[in-house]
From TrEMBL:
GO terms for molecular function: ATP binding; ATP hydrolysis activity. This is Alkanesulfonates ABC transporter ATP-binding protein / Sulfonate ABC transporter, ATP-binding subunit SsuB. It comes from the Bacteria. The keyword Ribonucleoprotein does not apply.
Length: 273
């Protein structure tokens, strides 16, 4: 279980990135974190990964404090960060180098097959498309069997079709071990497609605005009424999270299309329309 207990984070320059953030996420939970730019989403993930320290508060996984990178917590970034001097198989096996060779090979082969890249083990990262490389990055984290996997906008650099197929690949890999997944995304459709809880954050200072729970069955039909209703709920929560004094409300789709300023947060599936 991942516990985020009353986290505050102020950077040395005085930026108050997080104030009083509390979350308790049981094993197997998939949580999406959404919110306007600068509301502390990446900061929260970096703290949960042990890559930075909170100013106060604590992060624990199954009771153990996370104060530095820890094998129980994996993290995947927007870019795959594969090591170019290692083959695809070696990249996937990178975090399980301590395991006996046979087990390492077994896990690596399983992951390669599961992400549809069974023949790619001996190839090099430069030979992969962006979507394939990100599949490898996710597989690399999951073969280490983390209790928690954090994903910071993992699919935002990909086209809509590749993104949907990677969401499926992520769910498929997650099914095997069911770690807690925490995914930061700017895409409301992605949040609803993947998660059973959406945490909406708000900025200045970064804090939790609202938490929405969904129990839609997998695989999720993006056209189903319940899915569309859930998306609307999240969009409404986002609107209200951004409706602070001094901030313009997020433009709605029916607004005149005369070179509108891009809002701080516009779901990519709306941009694609
Ligand atoms: N290393 C840093 N030093 C100082 N301030 C920082 C640092 N990193 C982030 N901040 C500030 O902390 C706040 C939260 O930033 P963070 O990157 O966590 O937000 P975010 O929600 O992930 O934003 P975005 O959606 O734009 O990526 C912002 O005001 C940002 O300027």
């Amino acid at each position: 279980m991942l516990h985020i207990d009353h986290i505050n984070k102020t950077y040395p320059n005085g930026a108050e990135a997080l104030r009083g953030v509390d979350l308790a996420l049981e094993a197997g939970r998939i949580v999406a974190i959404v919110g306007g730019s600068g509301c502390g989403k990446s900061t929260l993930l970096r703290l949960a990964a042990g890559l930075d320290q909170p100013s106060s508060g604590a992060i624990r996984v199954d009771g153990e404090a996370i104060t530095a990178p820890h094998p129980a917590v994996g993290i995947v970034f927007q870019e795959p960060r594969l090591l170019p001097w290692l083959t695809i198989a070696q990249n996937i096996g990178f975090y399980i180098a301590d395991l006996p060779a046979a087990e390492r090979r077994e896990r690596t082969d399983w992951a390669l097959a599961r992400i549809g890249l069974a023949a790619y083990g001996p190839r090099w990262p430069r030979e992969l498309s962006g979507g394939q490389a990100q599949r490898v990055a996710i597989a690399r984290s999951l073969v280490a069997h983390p209790k928690v996997l954090l994903l910071d906008e993992p699919f935002s650099a990909l086209d809509a079709f590749t993104r949907a197929s990677l969401q499926d690949a992520l769910l498929d890999l997650w099914q095997a071990q069911r770690p807690t997944l925490v995914i930061v995304t700017h895409d409301v459709q992605e949040a609803v497609a993947l998660s059973n809880r959406v945490v909406v954050m708000q900025p200045e200072p970064g804090r939790i605005h609202s938490v929405l729970d969904f129990s839609l069955p997998y695989p999720r039909d993006r056209l189903a009424d319940a899915f569309v209703r859930a998306e609307r709920q999240v969009l409404q929560a986002l609107d209200s999270s951004l409706a602070q004094p001094g901030r313009s409300p997020r433009p709605r789709r029916e607004a005149p299309l005369q070179d509108p300023p891009l809002p701080a947060l516009l779901p990519s599936h709306l941009i694609a329309v």
